[in-house]
Amino acid sequence: MSPDVTIHPLERAAAFYRSGDLDAAEWHCAQLLRAAPGPGHAEAWHLLGAIALGRGQAERSRGCFEQAVGLAPENAVFVSTLGEVHLDAGRVRDAEACFRRATSLDPNYERGHNNLGRALHARGDLDAARASFEEAVRLNPRYATALNNLGAVLRALGDHRQSIARFEEALAARPDYPEAHFNLGCSLQARGELAAAAERFREAIRLKPDYARALFQLGQVLEESRRDYDALRCYEAAARLQPGDAEMHRRLGIHLVLKKDWPAALSALERAVAIEPDEPVPFASLVCARHQVCDWRTYDSDLERLWADAERQLAAGKATAVTPFQALGLPWPLSRQLAVARSYSDGLAHHLGVHGLASVASRSARPPAASGGRIRIGYLSGDFSDHPIAHLIHGLFGRHDRGRFEVFAYSFGPPDGSPYRRRIAAECEHFEEVSSLTAVDLARRIAADGIDILVDLMGHTGVNRLATLAMRPAPVQVSFLGMLGTTGADFIDYLITDPVTTPANFAPWFTERFVTLPHSYLVAEPEPASESAAGGDATRGARGMSRRGYGLPDPDDGFVFCCFNSAYKFEPRTFDAWMRILSQVPGGVLWLCSAGPVVEENLRREASARGVDPGRLVFAPFVPRPEHLRRHAAADLFLDTLLYNAAATAALSLLAGVPVLTCPGETFASRVGASIVGAVGLPELVARDVADYERTAVELAHDPDRLDRLRTRLATLRTTAPPFDPPRFVRNLERAYLAIWGRHASGEPPAAIEVTESDG
């Protein structure tokens, strides 16, 4: 047979294949096989397999490659290509067998070693995968694909420094390699180098505009950088490109929740659950959103599944799908809250240990005498802005005794220019803007500043910096104010609290040691002069003058109960109590902050289901804070939520002269109200149980003189009671710091500390 008959048609077929004309390539292969049937055309079968693969015909390609291997069993390339089809189909063991055979047939076949590494990576044998990729790179040091794959394995092994180096080598060999840009971005993101990561993701997208994963990761980086609008655009684009990806829809939904675009958020989260109905994470995110919009139609069954999923995850040593902050709003005991929080904190500490970062910031050995005998206190928060935490403590920092304490504030939140942020920045001895620092660099900064006691004001809330605390940049680390529960973190030594919020019998369910302040751990700082509008007349007549503009009944026509808590703190048990109260107070209304039409519709439906006219729910629209303070004067009584109490909101209502009725439960978050109300000096407003809570609310509604006496007492107490005396609170907090540092300085381990005002 003429060589032209057997070879030239194959070359022509290959040329058509390379040009993208698959039909012509297939025709020439078929002509060749028909013209000269027999065992000698393994190359044609191999090319037919590649053509079928290009058309997405996986099973047909597999048959063609098997024909090629059958005709040429010693051809390492053919054997490896068959393995690639197996790997793409998820047949990892078959793929690995092919790749091992290929590298045995040709030990210098770099692609075979790279493919073997891919198979080993797919089945989780990272060390063996690394060895295979390294062999491929040894054979070809500019093999960009193998360098990229090696970098991915090194990242999975926790070696970000080496992974970054490999990705950079891959890009040096092939600058237009979008996957290498993407992977480099992921490693930079893991190290907290957000700006550099964003640059890599953008380059990957420029090279490959439909690169959904790069858009998704860029969205995460932008979200962490507080660029919410840009992040939303990325999430939307990624979800459009990958309509079947549950995680992309879930993250889109979570971001829309933060934006309070409830219909779109619920739609995205429901889509995520529809894609992966048995996965715990999408389901937990959807339930969280349902609770935030007060959609309780599947409340009980949702709770059952949440805990069942959590138990399985805990048993597997994984972090639960329910976050520690979400758990605070569920009717779960302290033991469950601890398990959830610990799963996150332990996972964080393990992650840092794997990545070699656990001891990046050495413990300070600097004695206080190095700063003139002063103890260095560092406050760490992303909430030094117009935020409830800053509302409570914006005056705390300037009241510290500078003869004994040197105060640092590390801020990684938005510089919003609010009077709260301005005061904190002006009155701190050192106000450090650290939002651009990675977790590692922030830990190094805190250690370099010689902080003695690092006070975290966030815990598991918001975009926190627990990763920095896990590196132990300070010898003593304390949780205060932001987290209404345990952090579950072995790297946080103490919790600033009080005996009402955390009775001694709560201690087994907290990883931190209790430092109990006298009175309450909350302080109600007066509003800045530019914001203050509280302190009006406490009488019913004065309240009546302010009601008409808010759609509320006049005092003679109806009693105004209010709760200005966020809607996520509402739950069926609290709402049941509220509706029973309204049922016994004709003409009374419940005044709530509006969280949008979806929430209002759900609450009106729940009221109707309990036999209460939905019109008796009045929703207050968002207004600037000064106006919100002024409108408190129109309320008669604040009804606290039962499961997750008001904290800053209760302090604000008390400052505004509105009595707060609360009922303590069996968790930290359910006892905050009792702490501040009791410390203010209104113990009769701390109910013994839910029945007493309802009875007291009804009695006060029917006894206006008694209510007026309460409000008159509160008008005096809010100028004298401990929570309204910030200088006194700061002195007690400083006593706590002195006791904490005294134990550390004497070499004693953390232990429970009770602070009294008789302490030095």
TrEMBL record:
<protein>
    <recommendedName>
        <fullName>protein O-GlcNAc transferase</fullName>
        <ecNumber>2.4.1.255</ecNumber>
    </recommendedName>
</protein>
<dbReference type="GO" id="GO:0006493">
    <property type="term" value="P:protein O-linked glycosylation"/>
</dbReference>
<feature type="repeat" description="TPR">
    <location>
        <begin position="110"/>
        <end position="143"/>
    </location>
</feature>
<keyword id="KW-0802">TPR repeat</keyword>
<dbReference type="InterPro" id="IPR037919">
    <property type="entry name" value="OGT"/>
</dbReference>
<feature type="repeat" description="TPR">
    <location>
        <begin position="42"/>
        <end position="75"/>
    </location>
</feature>
<feature type="repeat" description="TPR">
    <location>
        <begin position="144"/>
        <end position="177"/>
    </location>
</feature>
<keyword id="KW-0677">Repeat</keyword>
<feature type="repeat" description="TPR">
    <location>
        <begin position="212"/>
        <end position="245"/>
    </location>
</feature>
<dbReference type="InterPro" id="IPR029489">
    <property type="entry name" value="OGT/SEC/SPY_C"/>
</dbReference>
<feature type="domain" description="O-GlcNAc transferase C-terminal">
    <location>
        <begin position="293"/>
        <end position="524"/>
    </location>
</feature>
<dbReference type="InterPro" id="IPR019734">
    <property type="entry name" value="TPR_rpt"/>
</dbReference>
<comment type="pathway">
    <text>Protein modification; protein glycosylation.</text>
</comment>
<comment type="similarity">
    <text>Belongs to the glycosyltransferase 41 family. O-GlcNAc transferase subfamily.</text>
</comment>
<dbReference type="Pfam" id="PF13424">
    <property type="entry name" value="TPR_12"/>
</dbReference>
<keyword id="KW-0328">Glycosyltransferase</keyword>
<feature type="domain" description="O-GlcNAc transferase C-terminal">
    <location>
        <begin position="530"/>
        <end position="732"/>
    </location>
</feature>
<feature type="repeat" description="TPR">
    <location>
        <begin position="246"/>
        <end position="279"/>
    </location>
</feature>
<feature type="repeat" description="TPR">
    <location>
        <begin position="178"/>
        <end position="211"/>
    </location>
</feature>
<feature type="repeat" description="TPR">
    <location>
        <begin position="76"/>
        <end position="109"/>
    </location>
</feature>
<dbReference type="InterPro" id="IPR011990">
    <property type="entry name" value="TPR-like_helical_dom_sf"/>
</dbReference>
<dbReference type="GO" id="GO:0097363">
    <property type="term" value="F:protein O-acetylglucosaminyltransferase activity"/>
</dbReference>
<keyword id="KW-0808">Transferase</keyword>
<dbReference type="Pfam" id="PF13432">
    <property type="entry name" value="TPR_16"/>
</dbReference>
<dbReference type="Pfam" id="PF13844">
    <property type="entry name" value="Glyco_transf_41"/>
</dbReference>
